Every structure is written in C-alpha cells, then in structure tokens.
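Q: Predict the assembly, please.
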Amino acid sequence: MTPKVRLTAKERGDEVLRAAVRAFAASGYEGTKTDEIARLAGVSQPYVIRLFGTKQQLFLAAIRSVCDRIEEIFREAAAESPELSALGRNYERLLAERELLLVLLHGFSASGDPVIGDCVRERFGSIYTLIRDLTGATPEQAREFLSAGMLMTVMSAMQLLGPDPIPMPWAAEIAKTFDN
Amino acid sequence: MTPKVRLTAKERGDEVLRAAVRAFAASGYEGTKTDEIARLAGVSQPYVIRLFGTKQQLFLAAIRSVCDRIEEIFREAAAESPELSALGRNYERLLAERELLLVLLHGFSASGDPVIGDCVRERFGSIYTLIRDLTGATPEQAREFLSAGMLMTVMSAMQLLGPDPIPMPWAAEIAKTFDN
DNA sequence: CCTTGTTGTAATTGACTGATAACAAGCCTG
DNA sequence: CAGGCTTGTTATCAGTCAATTACAACAAGG
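A: Predicted assembly structure:
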C-alpha cells in the first residue's frame, strides 16, 4: 500500500510522536505496542521504529514532549498571574489534556529502567525548579503544589478526575477540595 | 527437579504472593514476567499460574495485599495517636516498606484495564475513608495528607526518596519539607 | 499396601512483538 | 532524464511469554 501523502521525516515524526503520546498515556510503556502507535499514526510499524530507533527512545521522546507542554502551560499561566494559587487554577488545563499527566505517571512507573529514570528525574526536577522560579514560592509551598498535582495525576489515571469521571462519592468529595 | 520442601497450597501461595509483590514493585504489571516471580519464589512458572489462575489475578492479589498492609499501618499509627499529623509521621514506615507504595503506583498505572481499575479504585477509596474515620480529618485535611503521600510515592518510584536515594539537590529540598 | 488427592515439574505451544532487511516509489537536482 | 537521496512498505525473524497438558512424586487414610 502506497501512502496517501508524503511528508518529511520531521513532519511524520511529529505525527508519530503525537500518536505515541496518546498510546502511552492509555497503556503505559510496557503495555503499549509499537504496532498500536503505528496504527494510530497511520503508518507501518517498522517505520515507527526507523523514525525513532527503538521503542524506548520513542517513549523518551514522548516524556520530553509532554514535559515541554506542561512547562509551557505553567509559563503561560505565570505570565497572566505569577502567584502560586493562580498557577493552581491551571491544573484544569493539565487535566483537560489528560495525556500529559498520564504519560508522566507512566514515566514514574517506568523509572526502574535506568535510562527512563534519568530522563524522568531530570524533567521532573526542572518542572519543580520552574514552579519555584515562576512564582517565588518557598520549598514548602512548591511541594504542596506538586503534591496536589500528583494526587490529581493518580486520580486522573483511575478515571476519577478529568473528562467523564467514574462517579464515586468519596472521589467527588476529594475533587471538591481542589476547587480552592 | 523435585522440590526441596513440600508446602500446602496456601503456604506456597503466600510465598508466591510475596515474591509477586517484590517483582511487581520493581517492574510493574506489564513489565513483570511470571517467570521472574516464579524464580523469586523458587517454584516453576506454570505452578505460579496454577496457584492464581492468571497473571492478572495474581496482580490483583498483590494490590489487595499491599492495601491491606497500608491500612494496617495506618490503624496501628492511629491506635498510638489519632491525629492526622501523627499519622503523617508514619509515612516513614510506608517508605521503609518500599514495595507498598510502588505496587500501588503500578496499580494506578494499570487502571486502564477495567478489572484492575475497579480493584484499585475500591481500595484507594477505602484508604481515604479509613484515614478520615481514624483521624476525624476534614476532606481538605485528608486530601492534603493523601496528596503528600502521592508525591512521596512518585518520588519513591524515581528513587529520590526511601532507602539509598539518588542524590539530587532539588529532591533533597523537597524531602526536607516532609519532615514537619 | 494401595489408592486417591495434592503438590509440584517438564515439555510444549501458540500468539505476540520489537526489530531488521530488502525492496519500491516519489522527488529533487544537475 | 538519470542518478541518488528520502519516504515508506512488505516480508520475516528471533525471541519472549502466559498458559495448557501431561506426568511424577509424595502424603494420608482405609
């Protein structure tokens, strides 16, 4: 089957990367098959591998991509109002782009792999540092902010937060406390 | 090879379950091979399957096991002093038994699977409820407590917290804020 | 002692999966 | 328009892995 349209390797790589983010968000590192990513991107599986070398490198690219986007969201939010509480309101944006937090979570889970662990630690550290730099928050405040983000992340993974949540009374009770 | 000692199915099942907790903590649901669990438990791989039916059911058993232990730790802590701040000091115990938080984290990650998701939601909800019941904390306080736990969990997965942490200045800065 | 249920293994299988190789078709450039 | 570079596919492999089957050893009770 000849491809419908020919793109440059960079353009196609971007499309595959977007597909990879969606797929990894849904199934994690080990659980996602390169075949599925290829299907989502509309290309053949071997081409996915050729574009990124290995599945691991593709996952690393996905991690970097979502972390870039997370930092971008925080920067935009801080540009409007550089207070930590204002930044907090922008967790909504992160929850809306559900893949961001989910890929990050799967990054944490896959940190047992040294290569992935190095990448995740570096990116998580730079997010922490960015938050402190943008808002001037103390370590305590920044930690509290990050803590709330992590709870949102795991609740998002359990489908208790974000679009179309599974209704659970206790989860709704927790969700309400985020609205401050 | 004939086994060294014969145990009842229940005893052997417990040993396999302990091995499974260790293995799943290290590599997650998809990343852990039943073969590795068998090796850790000192039995053959088919026997692991026969004892638990499927790898999924073994993972569910591991989730239930660590959640039972987490609730037990909280109950013991509350028996000494039923204040939330006192309970917080017992996160150290959770960090010491590193597998507890790690298996839970991998449970969150694997929540995309409906069966696992159901189990994880139920157990996480009952932990939240237990915390509220034991301490009489408000939803806000309980959420804050859980939030801190989730940050500890992911930092533990990144090997930034717990025994033998990878030294990172920013991570140490965060870790210090937990000591209150 | 024998026979029946239980604990356990060895052998195997069938499906899957990441990666490689070989090839094809399109596009630019001289 | 010829030649080479880029984009993309098909075919295939070598390894892995959960699960099944069949069998073996052992213990306990009659």
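Residues 54 and 102 of chain B are 21 Å apart (CA to CA). Chain B has one domain: 9-177.
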